[in-house]
Amino acid sequence: MKLIFLGPPGAGKGTLAVKAVEILGVPQISTGGIFRAAVAAQSPLGIKVKEIMDAGKLVDDETTIALVKERLAMDDVQKGYILDGFPRTIPQAQALAGFSTVDKVINFDIPDSGVLVRLGGRRVCRKCGFNFHAVFNKPKQEGICDHCGGEVYIRDDDQASAIQKRLEVYRAQTAPLIGYYREKGLLLDMDASPMIDEIVINFKKVMGLAV
Ligand code: AMP
Fold first, then answer.
1. Which atom of ligand 1 is nearest to the CA of 85?
2. pLDDT tens across 54-66, in order?
3. Where are the alpha helices (DSSP H) in 55-100?
């Protein structure tokens, strides 16, 4: 099953992806996660993208497409994958069609007010990338990941100024993908407003899986 998770920042794509990996048995590919790992490693890619990410802007299509193309050539994704955060522009979607088929695109439907609440409280494990929330889903021990013991921190691009920019970028560059994939008959709309347990149920329903 080759799936795309499409939605604004803070819609819960990464949180659902962790559950969907277990449900479907295919890996999650998070372009944001790959970029963050590159920044942490201070690799040439990380040095190139850090400022762009911190400002809430998109990394250029050429760099991002090359990265995903290379990742999708690996053995572990031949049966399927969940693309979390890619494509984010029409050129990225067109490029993807040149090197992979896509079975379904899940459109995370959530108003801006919901996104702001989630991003404002988001906390992330620096080591394994697991998402927590300062109010709704706190780590058992403050600042420490329940899953791997890594440091739980606030992403640089979850600062208020970057959040506004990311929402603007989403509307201008990513939201047009909704129409693009709807026209192709691949889009499944999913209510992403509730808490995660209910979102998992919504996901199973739109996918036609037993709830
Ligand atoms: P995310 O974790 O998906 O919110 O992504 C974090 C940041 O990584 C984004 O704000 C962009 O700067 C960059 N990024 C992730 N995926 C893409 C993409 N498909 N195209 C361009 N930039 C991306």
1. 3
2. 999 999 999 999 9
3. 61-71, 90-99
